[in-house]
Amino acid sequence: MSAAAVATPDVTVPIKAGKRKKLILIGAAVLLAIALVGAAAALWLKNRAAHALEEAGDDEVAVQVKTAKPDPAHPPTFLPLDIFVVNLADKDAERYAQVGITLEVESAAFAEQMKTYMPAIRNAVLMILAHKTSHELLERAGKEQLADEILRETVRPLGISIPGPAARKPVTAAVDGSLAEAPAKKSKSAAAQAPHNPVRYVHFSNFIIQ
Questions:
Q1: DSSP secondary structure of 53-68
Q2: pLDDT tens for each residue of 155-179
Q3: Rounded-to-integer distance, Cα 122 and Cα 174, Å
C-alpha cells in the first residue's frame, strides 16, 4: 500500500509536464500565425494605398494647377481707356451709352505700344458701339459679345488680325424629321496657327445707357 502511494507521483508528473509543453507549442504556433496574418494584412493595405495614390496622382496635380495663386512678381497690366460716350443705333428713340473700358494686356511694354495707336483704337471701339442698340447692350449676352468684338478690334491697328467667332453650324434634318445642328469639324492645325492676342481681357469699369 505504501509502495503504490510512493509510485503514483512518478507516473503523474511526466504526464503534466507533457501537457504543459504541448500547450506552449500550440500557443507559440497560434502567436506565429497571428503575426503572419497581421504582417500580410499590413502589406496588403500598404500596397492598396500606394496604388490609390498612383491612380489619383493626375487629379491632385490638376487641383494644384487650378488653385495656384497668381505670381505677385508678375501682376497683370491694365490699360484704362478714356470714357466713351456714343449715340446708339436705336431707331425708335435717341439713346446713348456711356462706357468705361479697361484692357488687360500681357505686358507693360505692349501697353506702351498700344498708347501710340490710341486714336485708331478709340475709333475702332466707337465704330463698334455706334452699331449697337440699347436692347443689345442691356442684355448680358450683348455685353459679352461687345467685349469679344473689342478684344479683336483693339489689336487690329497694330497689325494683329484675330478671327471672329465661328459661323453658325449648318442645320440638318435628323432621322425623326426634327432639325439639328451638324457637328462641327475641329482642325488642330488651324487652332495651332491662330494668332496670339496680347489683349487678354476687356473689363467694363462703367456702363450707362440712357
A1: HHHTHHHHHHHHHHTP
A2: 999 999 888 764 334 333 334 433 4
A3: 46
Q: Which among 147, 81, 68, 79 has a CA at the least distance from the CA of 107?
A: 79
Does residue 122 contact residue 166 with C-beta atoms inside 8 Å?
no
Query: Three-state SS for 77?
Result: strand
Going by C-alpha positions, the residue among 191, 201, 186 that lies closest to residue 148 is 201
For the entire predicted model, the pTM comes to 0.55
- 153 Cβ neighbours under 8 A, 6+ residues apart: 124, 125, 127, 128
The class that CATH gives domain 77-164+196-209 is alpha beta
Cell 456714343 belongs to which residue? 86
Give the length of the chain: 210
The grid coordinates listed for 89 are: 443705333
3-class secondary structure, 196: coil
Sign of CA dihedral 73, 74, 75, 80: positive
Amino acid at 151: L
What is the maximum span of the chain, computed from C-alpha positions, in angstroms? 138
Query: At residue 21, does pLDDT exceed 80?
Result: no
Residue with the three cell numbers 456702363: 207
Confidence of residue 75 (pLDDT cuts 50, 70, 90): confident
The residue behind cell 504526464 is 15
Q: Rounded to an integer, what distance in angstroms lies between the CA atom of residue 146 and that of residue 138?
A: 11
* Domains of the chain, residue spans: 2-66, 77-164+196-209
